[in-house]
Amino acid sequence: MKKLTPVFYISFFIALIFIVWGAFAPDNVDEVLGSIQSFISKQFGWFYLLSATAFVIFAIYLIFSPFGRIKLGKPDEKPEYGYFTWFAFLFTAGMGIGLVFWGVAEPLYHYYGPPSAEPQTNAAAAAALQYSFFHWGIHPWAIYAIVALSLAYFKFRHDAPGVVSASLRPLFGNRMDGPYGTAVDVIVVFATIFGVATSLGFGAAQVTGGLSFTFDFISNNIITQLIIIAIITVLYLFSAGTGLNRGIRILSMTNIVLAIGLMLFLLAVGPTVYVFDVFTTTLGSYIQNLPSMSFNTAAFSGDRAWLENWTIFYWAWWIAWSPFVGTFIARVSRGRTIREFMLGVIAVPTLFGALWFSVFGGTGISTNISMGGGLYEVMSNQGDEFALFTLLNEFPLSAFMVTLAILLIVSFFVTSADSATFVLGMQTTNGSLNPPVSVKMVWGAIQSSSAAVLLYFGGLGGLETAMIIAALPFTFIMLLMVISILKSLRSERSIIQSDKAVLQAERNKLREEKERLKKEKEELKKKVKK
């Protein structure tokens, strides 16, 4: 525990205050923090929309700019992980569990309450899937990519500590080693602790719902949920003790195999042609309407409440999660070029998410219509966590599919919690790439205890709101990160010019070789004619 920084102790103290507040005054937490969040959504919704879109534009710029050739590491370094493993890490850390939870539920919500179309119509179904693509597509992954790129660039190329405050040194210099840097890193840890704690609580509810749906002798109550949290805690603490290249890596590979297997199985037994039609049509409308959706503040329409409850909430949620996800993605992306990194982090998960929502969301809407609204009724009466299991129950081999879904959810939560302990360990030990097991165990215990206590006392909603509120200051930090990395990248113009010179020399050499071969070919033809 010798490597601990002040960030650890300050974050621990703040976490303790919020846990006690959420446990003994959950209604007060909801009221106070809910009012703050409502004020932020109404007054700063435009700021979230502009910032998220700015991150997308900056990410696209980096892909096509000369900076794209720069490596996240030394010039001769190779990627630490192969593509499949790397994508598995991205998918698991980014939003895998969210896709499982919301893959059926969110499109159904939008189908019955679209932003502008008439509910329960074909136009509503199209809007439902288009906005699901939007909320889980390019924007969130661009947000993650900006944080991850900043951390990976400064850590692996300039040997800076792997903490968020270190990425601001080009702007603020050594002041980031003092209170300002500590404040930045405390915000990161705060968002990570409560992001994962609330996810553990809600995840336990979904696993319990799946088990009670499958087995009559299992009750969907708080006791079962606490038992699930205890089991998941034991699993991820065991995994945390094995390190990144064993526990998290194996779990990530398992997650991606299970997720693809479940998706392909439903695609095969469900309305296959309809799903592919949905994917093709919605992908086109998503790309076509991306600019207008990105800048829509509902200034001239009556759907402002919908925008605040969904799009603005999601942008704040992704920004709040970005320190955790970004730190983990940065850790596993050493040796990639900036162009390769941006394309991999944004394009691949976006396409996978689009296919996922087409399969589960498209099938969900189609099945709900054939059931006369029965799927949405179950979801509304029993909880969002029952949407997936009710849908799977309508197809062949339902028991197998529900069991596979439960295993996938458990595996995702173990991996997410394990990854979070790794990130918290890094951020509270000055960016250590391999934080001590003891530190990870402490944060793992804090996460689970927070989830259990707050779930029991009903304070999870307030803490989720607290994490969303933390997104506002971190949005400013992210904008500073963009300016900081641009400033640092511009200082590498000599390297880029050198790369251009080498590339031009190689082109000239190839051109000369081509001319030589052409002359030899002509001379050979002359000899053959003679």
Automatic annotation (TrEMBL):
It is a multi-pass membrane protein. The chain crosses the membrane at residues 7-24, 44-64, 84-105, 138-156, 177-202, 222-244, 256-276, 312-329, 341-361, 399-425, 437-459, 465-486. One of its GO terms (molecular function) is transmembrane transporter activity. Its main location: membrane. Keywords: Cell membrane, Coiled coil, Membrane, Transmembrane, Transmembrane helix, Transport. Belongs to the BCCT transporter (TC 2.A.15) family. The keyword Nucleotidyltransferase does not apply. GO terms for cellular component: plasma membrane. It is found in: Cell membrane. This is Glycine betaine transporter. Residues 493-530 form a coiled coil. The keyword Cell membrane applies.
